[in-house]
Structure formats: C-alpha cells, structure tokens
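Lab notes, practical 5.
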Amino acid sequence: MSDTVEQVKQRLSILDVVSSYVKLERAGQNMRAKCPFHAERTPSFFVSPERGTYHCFGCDKGGDIFSFVQDIEGIDFKGALKILAERAGVPLRYSKREKGDDRDRLHEIMEAAAIFYASRLTKEAHEYLQKRGLSENTIGAFRLGYAGDGWGDACDYLQARKFSEKELLDAGISKRGERGIADKFRNRIMFPIADSAGRIIAFSGRTFGEKAHPDAPKYLNSPETTLFKKSHILYGFDRAKHAMRKHNFAILVEGQMDLLLSHETGFANTIAVSGTACTEEHARLLKRMTDNLVIALDADEAGVKAAGRAARVALREGLHVKVAALPRGSDPADMIAGKGKDAWRAIVRDSKDVITFFLNAIEERAKDAERFRRSVESAVLPFLNDVRSPLEREHYMREIAGRLHVSESAVAEATARLPRESAMENFSTNTSGVHVRQLPKRAEEAYAILVWQKSVSKPAIDCDQYEEALEQAVGRDMFNDLKSIPKDRLEALRFKVEEHHRNTEAALQKSVKSLLEALLRTRHSEELKNITQKLAMAEECGDEGLTQQLLKQSKDLTKCIAELGNVV
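Output from the prediction step:
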C-alpha cells in the first residue's frame, strides 16, 4: 500500500485536492481560504504547495491530501485512498498482510452481499422497478437487487466464501434465531447504501412479492454497525457529491425511490436520509460540498414537520435553505412518475426560501389574521435564531414584518423573547402548535425512578419532594412530556432502573441527587445559550432595556451553574 500512497502523492498536489472542495486565494507563497471544517468570518485555513500540507489556525486541523479527504468526506484512510487513487489513475492493490483488520472484512462481506442480491434480482422485481420509472442504467448503477424468501440463502452464500457467523452478524446481514443465524432481509428489493468512497456499508430493503409478510414494515434498514452510522450517512452521497459542487446546491429527499427518480430526471445532486431524521452531521457533510440546500420531503403532515426540522439543522450549519412545494399528499417519486420530468424540474426550480415557504403554508391554512400571527410567532420566528448570517436574518425579518403588517423592530423583539423550545421543532400545518419533544435519556431515567418508587410499599425516597424537584429540574413542558411516555416504553424503563438501582437505599438517594443536579445543570446551560443568542440580537437592534434584562439573567444563570458544580 505504501507504494500506492506515494504514487498518488506524486500525481496529485495538495492544491489539486483542496481546490476541488474549497475556493483558495493567494497569500504570499501559500494559499488561503475560510476553513471548511468550522465556521469563520476571516480566513485562517492555509495551504502550503511547497510542503504539500494544509493547516487551520482556527480549529487546528492539518495534514496532507489523505487526512484532508478523510475529514471532508467523513471516511477512513482506506476510503480516502480509494477516492484519490481513482482520481489519480493509480491501480489500488492490497497485499494479503494488509487485508486483516475487522473493517476490511466487513467491507468485503458487504461487497459480496451486494453482488449476491444483484444476481438474484427477479424478472418480477425488475419489471416493477421499470414500471416505477427506473431505467436499466439506474438499476445497474445503483446496484439494486433482491432478497428472496429463503431463510438462509445469503448466509449460505457468504459462509461458503469463508465468512464466519460472527462476521455476518457484525455486518448486519444476518440475525440470530432459535435455530442459529438467518437472513435479516427476505422478500425485499434491496438498495445498497454506500459511503463517500462508494463502498457498500448497509442495505435498505423494500417489501416485494407474494410471499412478503403483510405485517412486515415496508422498508427495513440495516442495523447500525462499525461501518454504518445512520446519522453520518446520506443515501446516494457518493454519486451526488460531484454534482453538488458543480451546481452548488443539493436536493434532500426522504426515500430511495425519490432519489433514484430524481437522478433519472437529471438531478444527480440528490441525496436521501437513511432511516433517520436529518442530523447535524448530515448538514456538515453537505456544507462541505455546497452552500445551498433544497428540501423536497413528502407533502403530508409528517413530511412538512420533517422539512421544518431539517431546515433548522441546515440553517444552523450555515446553509441557505429552500423548500420545494409539492402537491399536498404526494412525494417526489409520485410527482415524477405521475406528471413527468418537466413537472419535477419546475418544482425544484420554483422552490421557496424556507421562511417564505412556511409563511405560505401557515397563511393558506390559517382561518383569520390573529391565528396567522400567533402561528407565525410560535412556528416561524424560531428559524431566525438559526440563521447565521446577520444580513440574511434581517432580510427574513423584513419579509415576516411585511406579511404580518408590523414593524421589523417588533419582529426582532418577539424573536429575542422566544422560549428555548418552540412549536417549529415539530412544525404542524394545521397551526395547532402541538409539540412532541425528543426526551433526553437522563430525564427518562429520572422519571422512571419516580414511577418505580411510587409503586413500592416502602419507597427509598420522598416521592412528593422528588417529583417536585424533577419538574423543576426539567421544566414543566418536559415533565408533561415525560408523563406521556407510552406505557410499554415506560415499563421497559422502569425495569431498567429497578435492575440498576436496586442495591441500597443510600445508593439510590445519591443517584437521584446526582441525576437532578445533572438535569438542572443541563437546563440552565441551554437557557444560558438561548439568552446569549437573544442578547446578541437585542444588541444588534439597540434595545438597551432588553439588553440589561438579558445580562442580568445571564449572570444569575452562570452563578446557578457554578453552584451546581461539574456534574457529568
């Protein structure tokens, strides 16, 4: 492998590699740019052509072409080597001694599994994919396949190629049953999921065929493994990244068919989430490729909420966000299949800035001006705190003020006074403001202890006092959400805390005290972060009274946090 590395370095300079991701400008003998790894206003990222290295004086990242590609693509060294070797035209060869680690074995299993499933693509599955609008080229390029109804076909195939049971389980290809291991995927069209280097790391399977169980989930994804982290992987990213940089925007869709049909229409810059919501890691990955994102999720209630959450995540990472307005109740795949490529191109072309989109969505459903105002205040204003550019934020404030027929200063003040959480975390087009919170594990554990102790004849803690302290530590809204935890989940949590805290009364009391302190510290820290954002906006608007009020709140919270100590 060392020979391959040296050949790649001889053929590709640091400028060749970095300039394909970042716009560089001359700075004496070196080149500089704004760092692609952290947000900054003044360039502190320098590239030295003479040494073949880069270094950021802001976040202290540095290295050569391989470490740069590792960091910017979010892959390991061998993934970076694969990308750069292909670009340099250098054949990639490994010696047997170099092929021994666990990750390499998992990559080999996933590649073998992809070949197996592709070879089993039935005539019926192939015809179904073509009827959905996929061409032969797309079916082949994305390596679509089929898992039949056999309980162990994939296992037998892979074990015949000397992969062990443990390796199959670690790769997520198999699952353990009463009679040993069995195939995880059965009666499904298989969509391989690749990392940034194009290596298969997971699968998503869609039910298909007469033998598919009627109660089986429509889509089944691989479990998280050493290779596959859902929060870091975007389906189709390996094939879309060059188009994202070329066209300077990405299109985010929800499902595999949405992505494949979008690629069919010529939008090779389309990516999809893989069985999870859009995360900060996803947004950071996109930000390294482009500054612009078009969100095109399903046009039902759940899809619009998901678009709102994805937009807020993307805005926080500095992306300029637009939302595609699909016909109500449709998704991109339906849109393309039903109305054709030109209709989809028009939808993407006519996508609206995120603020405009949600203002339109609320106004369309609001029954009167007062309800429109209240919904905008609770559901749209939170976006302003997520926008990093002051100029862009001011532009949005002006638009909101115009739609509400109020002054910009009123919008700024209302935004600065927003609570820490808002309805936009789960945006609802029915303007009801219903909010479902993602509950922290620590809060769930604390509440499960309360439920457990209330159920025993001689509790080890004062339940009334503990309940009051817990509500104070997490806040009334979160406490109400804790009380709404589904019964089956609450039973599982209760069982877990009983097993964990059953030792002694003194130990439980100590654990409860630590939990409450940690929760209260987290709450105060979040409140302090929110106040700091409000303070910056109040100072921008020149509101001296609000500035002084927020400064006092900031000092009080800082004191409270210090008194709680360093709870982890």
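Observations recorded by the TA: The longest strand covers residues 200-207. The chain is about 55% helix and 10% strand.
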